[in-house]
Amino acid sequence: MNAATAHPVLHDPDDTALARTLGHAGLIPFVLLAALLWLVNTELQAWVAIALAGYAALIASFMGGVHWGIAWLAARHAATHGEPPHHAQRKHLLWGVVPSLLAWPGLLMPPFAGLAWLGFVLVLCYLVDRTLYAQAGLQQWLTLRFRLSGVAALSCFVGAGAL
What we know:
Elements: H1 13-25, H2 28-39, H3 42-80, H4 87-108, H5 111-135, H6 142-161
């Protein structure tokens, strides 16, 4: 199975633009909550920190879930073309659960440590995706993933610095 043809990708420019727009819109809570941690009074900081940590953990879990989608598409492609299942599917399924498992402790830590941890989890997700997306023929998404992951992780680190 050729990696470039193994998985369908968005070919419609409107769909690609929509994916980029939605991805950038998903950064609004990160940036807003990180800024609020520096602006609100001490009584509200805990609530804002929990909101930012919860959102970061949710996004990390989402990034893992994307890999299950990639694995299912690869399985469907293999079945339709009479090919044996590809071992890369297993990598996507296994990695797909890791971001959630790594993000969860970030919700249990004190807020400053939890936000820093979650920032590192988001960076790790991008670093793994650099390899797994390329193997799946999805490298065209890595520039967007870099931008989104960078702003999301930076927001967590900036938020942790406010505490």
